[in-house]
Amino acid sequence: MSGHVPVMLPEVLEALAPQADQVIVDGTFGGGGYSRAILAAAPCRVIGLDRDPDAVARGHLLAQEMPSRFTMVETQFSRLDEIDHPIDAVVLDIGVSSFQIDQAERGFSFMQDGPLDMRMGKDGPSAADVIAQLSEAELSALFHHYGEEREARRIARAIVTDRVDKPYLRTSELAGVVARVIGRKHHDGIHPATRVFQALRIYVNDEIGELEKALVAAEAILPAGGRLVVVSFHSLEDRAVKTFLAERSKAASGSRHTPTLTGPAASFDLITRKPVVASDAEIAANPRARSAKLRAAIRTCAPARPRPISGLRGVPTLDQIRRAA
Ligand SMILES: C[S@@+](CC[C@H](N)C(=O)[O-])C[C@H]1O[C@@H](n2cnc3c(N)ncnc32)[C@H](O)[C@@H]1O
What we know:
CATH architecture of the largest domain: 3-Layer(aba) Sandwich
CATH topology of the largest domain: Rossmann fold
Order of helices and strands: HEHEHEEHHHHHHHEHEEHEH
Radius of gyration: 21 Å
Shape: globular
Number of helices: 13
Bound molecules: S-adenosylmethionine
Distance between the termini: 39 Å
Helix content: 40-55%
Largest sheet: 8 strands, mixed
CATH superfamily of the largest domain: Vaccinia Virus protein VP39
């Protein structure tokens, strides 16, 4: 089993700028690449979070190495506001780790046969349950919204027709039906099952919902000057981060006609106006870095917005997907 190569590590460290005695939350511990680099960059403390028990076990090994500087917590990063300690910065590296993809039995990969699972936290309904239980219209909406799959309707129809005779239980079975419907080559040259697997993974783990809650939680717990750094890997996630930070960094302003301030003050100042992307050299060495986008911001002293996140236009929730179906 290969390890996980951390993506955009120098850029993450620059955006986080860890300082002595700070407490930094690595909300996606994974293989610990970010945590170790942060601990090496400054005499600070790191709290690692991950929902995957395998990642948590790796984190406990790091905690044994550095008991006074590193703590590992098994939890979802949407709950980071439950951390009972003042926090100076939060970093999130959204998505799956190579540890998860490379282990066929976790069911994330269409390249290797394994159970159709995809649960990062190893609990709740699996991808096989979703494929068995959603209606044709729901599956189609899911593949369309979360996978941006053009052939969503045809794939959903084929699945629902076939599952009457035999449930889909293996990754190879699902990859097979997608390839059968849309042909061996996808229209944009990627593996035909890429988008369907991505959509299912996002749904099974409620990845967009988790991210939205984590952004709001970070806003709530970070003090003035605290940093939020997010690396994401596909357009829906990046859109969620971009929309949140754009909304929260918009300064309240009056107009020529109504010069008094309107609306709440900005709760974040952007460090990155445009997303930072990986260098050509990093992409050549690690193709996973190709789609990575880093966005970062510094918390202002303005209060956190009282209302829940509202600005994620265009990123449907699970309920909206069901209703659209
Ligand atoms: C891309 S990997 C992180 C790799 C890490 N930065 C490193 O350098 O090794 C993403 C990790 O985040 C975890 N994860 C994804 N969604 C999560 C969530 N909502 N809550 C907690 N952990 C999550 C996954 O289990 C995975 O281990």
